[in-house]
Amino acid sequence: MLYSCKLKSVCNLPVTYNKKINTAGTSNADVPLADPGMYQLDITLRRGQSLAARDRGGTSDPYVKFKIGGKEVFRSKIIHKNLNPVWEEKACLLVDHLKEPLYIKVFDYDFGLQDDFMGSAFLDLTQLELNRPTDVTVTLKDPHYPDHDLGIILLSVVLTPKEGEHREVTMLMRKSWKRSSKELSENEVVGSYFSVKSFFWRTQSLCLSDVHRKPHLWRGIVSITLIEGRDLKAMDSNGLSDPYVKFRLGHQKYKSKIMPKTLNPQWREQFDFHLYEERGGIIDITAWDRDAGKRDDFIGRCQIDLSALSREQTHKLELQLEEGEGHLVLLVTLTASATVSISDLSINSLEDPKEREEILKRYSPLRIFHNLKDVGFLQVKVIRAEGLMAADVTGKSDPFCVVELNNDRLLTHTVYKNLNPEWNKVFTFNIKDIHSVLEVTVYDEDRDRSADFLGKVAIPLLSIQNGEQKAYVLKNKQLTGPTKGVIYLEIDVIFNAVKASLRTLIPKEQKYIEEENRLSKQLLLRNFIRMKRCVMVLVNAAYYINSCFDWDSPARSLAAFVLFLFVVWNFELYMIPLVLLLLLTWNYFLIISGKDNRQRDTVVEDMLEDEEEEDDKDDKDSEKKGFINKIYAIQEVCISVQNILDEVASFGERIKNTFNWTIPFLSWLAIVALCAFTVILYFIPLRYIVLVWGINKFTKKLRSPYAIDNNELLDFLSRVPSDVQVVQYQELKPDPSHSPCKRKKNNLG
Questions:
Q1: Which end of the chain has fewer CB atoms at under 10 Å, N or C?
Q2: What DSSP assignment string belongs to 713-733?
Q3: Which Gene Ontology cellular component terms are annotated (predicted)?
Q4: What is the mean pLDDT of residues 416-439?
Q5: Which domain holds residue 404?
Q6: Adjacent-strand bridge partners of 154
Q7: Rounded to the nearest 5°, which phi and psi values hold at 747?
Q8: Whole-model pTM?
Q9: How far apart are CA 75 and CA 106, in angstroms?
């Protein structure tokens, strides 16, 4: 049997094994070029001086390549906007002969374009002394323009002959490959191959530079949300563009979707980069106009210096495009990985008495008008998860956790090959709206594709019990039913109630990343039923009043007639909020007395649970039948109707849930507001109130031309959850098998 053994050259260099190493002298000048051996070349790339300017701003973004024998063996990092860069990078190379010089080339980095040549030089390795550090200055030249001064590169090099194991391997391979493969036994060939292979595994680190040795763990994660572009440059003949954006961080790239025929695109795309450098890095961003059949047009560029951004905080950036027109709006968040901890459980703000006192003081009732946008403080301890879904073929998962509060998004590190991960991390957020919902999502990391969803929980801030470690059952993407696993969280919320009340009356913060609406037969039917229920309440009330006019029940009609005369004769405007106040008070006493009249809608709940299954069926049917253009048009109309039905139904449900004490904070706030309105309407004549209201409406734009018109009542109701949201936010009862006590008993058993 014939065996063919092939050994890859280290550092992509050609390796010969039939030459001897001469180490008698200290200089390699005495070594004949016909008889060289293997050498280790240690290079320190120090800095450059007076390099050539290649960018319009009179600077360059230089980096250096080393080549030997026509093959690239080293590439330095990029130093942005600097003609006197300092690299201080080390590379360790194995060289098998010295007749090939070290070729040094310098380039100017241009993202999305071809890099500009900045000069080159050669280093003759035969002129270096062995075992002696040497400082080398090479002058950069352009072969096409030899008279141009392109600056210098400063290096430190050490050339060392390699003996010992290298010589043994050389002799081993020489003996093995001198003989024909027919003369070798199977064990000899295999033994020779694996002896050589094991040696090179031990010495591989000698020839890899720090740049090429990719770390297994990154030092952080950069979460980027591309929101929109504003006033971009028109590149097409119709005065518009088809813009898209490219991002690059080191070797990582991302390309956004194309937005056709617009100068103000709305992308709403979120993606992550891994951060390998301790100090941060530079994200290069370029905007392009898509042109079918020819080269895309360049719109502009900008950069983000990550070293200037604070960690564990979401930054909203509006970047001016250079070499073009317009702005890009982004959200950027830097979070740490396992190598640079976000915050361990042993160190957190609220457990430090001094810090806790400062936080409590910051949100005390006495500091009502100090920074009204800073409503409160949220601390989330992500402890662990248990019994997660297996997403990999090995029966395991690589789970990590994403914690979101509105547009703030932070991530834990990944725990590899584990269904019961422990993160033990603490996240802190500034609360801008006490009615926000904390979303905690668990994903399975996949290096080659997008992460797999494992489970999610949504927790309204007002429902949180401070300092309580709690097991939350993970739900599906729609938050309508359970999925496999639980997550253990401990959450603390500190807020100023007065600031929270004032913020309730202004528009909610827009969430930039939301799932796109899609047509669903089940969702359309559900929204229709919800709207029908709200309408039927009004219809039944109209039937009841009409029955009083028809005297179907004489006793009831007589009572209604007397009540009508009394109310009309004695009516005052303040009685309207007073009646609503009495209704709220009546329902409150029913709740505290145990006679809760809040009924859960089992119809909506059942439909929510079946929605995902029905959608899957719809998707399969649509794939079989296919869609034509008319169907797409009908789909858009159906989605619009579906959303209108949802808005109308949600409006009625929010009014009902306000009086049903679904959110006690909002019901108490309604009581305070109704009391104030009752007193105002009692003591102030209606004409004066209407006069003040009219003057305010007519002069509002004069006093504040750029003020956003809003309705305080609608803003208040937007904070009240609809029936669907009540079901989504409702906590599921954990499986008793996840109880720590029971788990210990099972282990003992």
A1: C
A2: HHHHHHTS--HHHHHHHPPPP
A3: endoplasmic reticulum membrane; recycling endosome; synaptic vesicle membrane
A4: 89
A5: 344-504
A6: 47, 137
A7: -65, -40
A8: 0.52
A9: 10
